[in-house]
C-alpha cells in the first residue's frame, strides 16, 4: 500500500473518530460548555466593522457560491494539471454535500437561539460551510501542491492560504451564532473523512509523474 493511501485512510479514520466523539457528546438540547464559551467570545467580537468582514465570508458557504467555486477551481486546476486528474474534487464535493444533508436530517439538531444577521434554514449539525470548505479548499490545495512544480515557499503559501480560508469559513458561522462550536468542529472532521477517502482513491502518483520532478 502506498504512503498516499496510508495517509488517506489514516486521515479518514482519525477524522471519523473525532466526528463520532462529538456526535455522542451532544446534549439533548442546547450547547455544551465549549459551545457556550465560544458563543460568549463570538458575541464580544461583534461590531459593524467585523460584520462587514464576516458577512461576505459566510456567504461563500451558500450552495450557489460553493457550486460556482467548485466548478471554477476544478476548471482551473484541470487546465493546469490535466482534466483526467481533477475528477476527485467535484465528485468529493457532491459526496460531501449529500453526506452533510443526510447527517443533518438524521441528527436534526436545532440551531442556536442567538442566531442573528443572516438568514439560515435547516438543522445545525454538522456545519455544511465547515465541512464543504474543508473538502473543497483542502483538496484544491493538495492538487495544486502535488500537480504543479511549485517551489517550497509557494507550496507552503498555498497550504497556509487554504487553512486560513477553511478556518474563516467556520469562524464566520460562529460570529453570526448560526452554529455551535461543536457543529463547526464536527463539520471539519466530517470533511476530513471525505478528504482522506479522496486521497486514498485519487491518482496523485500519476499526477506527480506527469508533472515530473520539481
Q: What would you say this structure looks like, in words?
A:
The protein has 214 residues and is mostly helical. The chain has one domain (3-211): Vanadium-containing Chloroperoxidase, domain 1 (Up-down Bundle), CATH 1.20.144. 75% of the residues lie in helices and 0% in strands. It has helices at 3-25, 33-45, 48-59, 63-81, 88-107, 128-147, 152-175, 181-201, 204-211. Helix 6 (128-147) packs parallel to helix 8 (181-201).
Mean pLDDT: 88
Per DSSP, the total helix count is 9
| Measured distance between first and last alpha carbons | 24 Å
| Overall CATH class | Mainly Alpha
The SSE order reads HHHHHHHHH
Rg over alpha carbons: 18 Å
Percent of residues in helices comes to over 70%
* Domain module count: 1
Q: Give a short account of the largest sheet.
A: none
The count of strands amounts to: 0
**Percentage of residues in DSSP E strands:** under 5%
CATH topology name: Vanadium-containing Chloroperoxidase, domain 1
| Spans of at least 5 consecutive residues with low confidence | none
Short description:
The protein is mainly alpha-helical and 214 residues long. It is built from 9 helices and no strands.
SSE blueprint and pairings:
Elements: H1 3-25, H2 33-45, H3 48-59, H4 63-81, H5 88-107, H6 128-147, H7 152-175, H8 181-201, H9 204-211
Helix pairs in contact: 1-8, 3-7, 4-6, 5-6, 5-8, 6-7, 6-8, 7-8
Provide keyphrases for this structure:
Vanadium-containing Chloroperoxidase, domain 1; mainly alpha; 214 residues; 0% strand; 9 helices; single chain
Amino acid at each position: 500500500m502506498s504512503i498516499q493511501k496510508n495517509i488517506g485512510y489514516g486521515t479518514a479514520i482519525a477524522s471519523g473518530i473525532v466526528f463520532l466523539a462529538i456526535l455522542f457528546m451532544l446534549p439533548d438540547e442546547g450547547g455544551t460548555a465549549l459551545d457556550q464559551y465560544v458563543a460568549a467570545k463570538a458575541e464580544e467580537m461583534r461590531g459593524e466593522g467585523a460584520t462587514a468582514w464576516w458577512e461576505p465570508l459566510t456567504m461563500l458557504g451558500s450552495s450557489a457560491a460553493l457550486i460556482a467555486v467548485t466548478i471554477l477551481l476544478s476548471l482551473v486546476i484541470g487546465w493546469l494539471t490535466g482534466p483526467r486528474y481533477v475528477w476527485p474534487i467535484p465528485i468529493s464535493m457532491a459526496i460531501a454535500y449529500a453526506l452533510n444533508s443526510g447527517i443533518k436530517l438524521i441528527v436534526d439538531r436545532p440551531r442556536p437561539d442567538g442566531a442573528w444577521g443572516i438568514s439560515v434554514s435547516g438543522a445545525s449539525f454538522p456545519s455544511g460551510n465547515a465541512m464543504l470548505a474543508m473538502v473543497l479548499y483542502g483538496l484544491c490545495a493538495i492538487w495544486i501542491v502535488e500537480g504543479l512544480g511549485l517551489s517550497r515557499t509557494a507550496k507552503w503559501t498555498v497550504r497556509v492560504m487554504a487553512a486560513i480560508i477553511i478556518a474563516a469559513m467556520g469562524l464566520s458561522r460562529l460570529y453570526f451564532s448560526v452554529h455551535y462550536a461543536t457543529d463547526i468542529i464536527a463539520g471539519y472532521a466530517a470533511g476530513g473523512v471525505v478528504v482522506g477517502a479522496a486521497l486514498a482513491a485519487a491518482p496523485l502518483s500519476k499526477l506527480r509523474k506527469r508533472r515530473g520532478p520539481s
